[in-house]
Write a structure and sequence with these properties.
With 543 residues, the protein is an alpha+beta fold. The chain folds into 4 domains: 170 residues, Triger factor/SurA peptide-binding fold (Orthogonal Bundle); 114 residues, Chitinase A, domain 3 (Roll); 97 residues, Chitinase A, domain 3 (Roll); 75 residues, no CATH class. It has 20 helices and 13 strands. The strands form 4 sheets. It has a 4-stranded antiparallel β-sheet. Strands 2-1-13 form a 3-stranded antiparallel β-sheet. Strand 5 and strand 6 form a beta hairpin. Helix 5 packs across helix 12 and helix 12 crosses helix 13.
Amino acid sequence: MKKLVVAIVLCFSSIVFSQKKDKVLLTIDGDKTTISEFKRVYEKNLDAIDNEEAKDVQKNLDLFINYKLKVKEAYKIKLDTLPSYVKEMEGYKNQLAAPYLQDTSYVNKLVKDAYYRTKNEIKAKHILVRTPRIATPKDTLQAYNKITEIRDRIVNGEPFEKVAEETSEDPSARDDEKSGRKGNQGNLGYFSAFKMVYPFEEAAYNTKVGQVSKPFRTRFGYHILKVDSIRPSKGEVEVAHILLTKETKNAKQLIDSIYNRLEKDEQFKALARKYSNDTGSKSKGGKLRKFGTGVMVKSFEDVAFSLEKEGEYSKPFQTRFGWHIVQLIKKHPVPTFEDLKTDLKSRVKSGARAQLSEKAVVNKLKKQYTISENKNAKEIFDNKKIRDIAKDSLQAVILSINEKEITQEAFVDFIKNRKNKSVYDLFEDFKDQEILAYYKENLEKTEPEYAYTLQEYKDGLLLFELMQQKIWEKSSKDTLGLKKYYNSNISAYNNKEFKKVKGQVMNDYQNHLEKNWIADLRNKSAIEVNKKQLKKLIKHYNK
């Protein structure tokens, strides 16, 4: 019910944005409504109206006046101060503000980049120098200097793989004697969009084939990478497999016998259900979820993507898991940009890239706002027990954004439960948050469309509360009034028994109450319509 009322109000509410030449059409108790305000509401609904009578300007003006009177009454009895209303409006404000906190052009660029990186896979190797989870400026500098020295060795001619094996702090780069695992010497194989943390992906796709990147940072530490090649993506493949694990007795003989039975036209599904040791897929005839490159072990992936025809199956082959036979179910090439656009945009907005879009907004705002930091107030950063400083000692202004002053207390509250970064890095996050908060606080002043829509929601929720109090609750509780109305209008219901027409009677009674209430509101209000401007409007729309 509430959503319905809000939707109706979106059709009948507006906010005045004064224009020098905009004439006044309506005045209610001194509050003026301009022609442009009414036209905006009226024209907004024209496409949804399918009969000429409902398009009548005078009738729409009457409905508009009724709406204005109701909203005015809601504010008069302070429904806008109800805790439930305030809480719900806060949710709507955040929801409506969200698009303004994203840089649309930047999001579009990220989506296009993501599609290119989905269409084209990149093969790279990397070296990592880790930084502590809470890195001080000293930790960061040490890691940066170390990765720079490592890069210099490679640029001066040492093989990347050799240096990676010697220096990389990624454990997968070196042999593991305990498990017998062979190190990858920094080789990552092929990957595409969304497979790596974004800064890594960004560095890889912005480094030319054969070149070594400049040092860059992720949440793991500092990296350098070298791009080996780039190729069109193979898309995804859907396969079924039969697996005989290494523990299977006479596995090689058994897998060969299964292959021979396939060659004699026995069903792949039936053999998978009977013999496969993969408990997750055997009940489905060996069927696996579709996958792209970089998901399965390379030998399995190579065989799966080498199959060309649906239903075709491979010869037995071995991976570290055991012996397999793979059957192709379907190949899924990368869809077109138009087909993938919605999904990519959703992934961009919900992942780490969303922060980049938000950061782009912050960077724009930094150029628009006057922002100053108080160096003396920032001396608390050197206090190792900063989170325990008494509030009374945290009243100095640490940051100013235009006329808004923010104290040390707000910053210490911000970092109270954030211990994953240094205080200096956290202050940069805090500053960005405060800039966005200031922008949101002032959105109604800077973004007319946002202000207009927000006012619609405010009025809609108020109207819902008002109608609930004045009409719906009253009609449901006033059983005597309801019966009296029924008895007075029984002929309209063809003398049917009350309980058989109760729903219709209730609806009619609510309309009756509302009509009387509106009449009362009109009697108590001074309503003045500029007839000259109304005639012009009618003439304009009659054309």
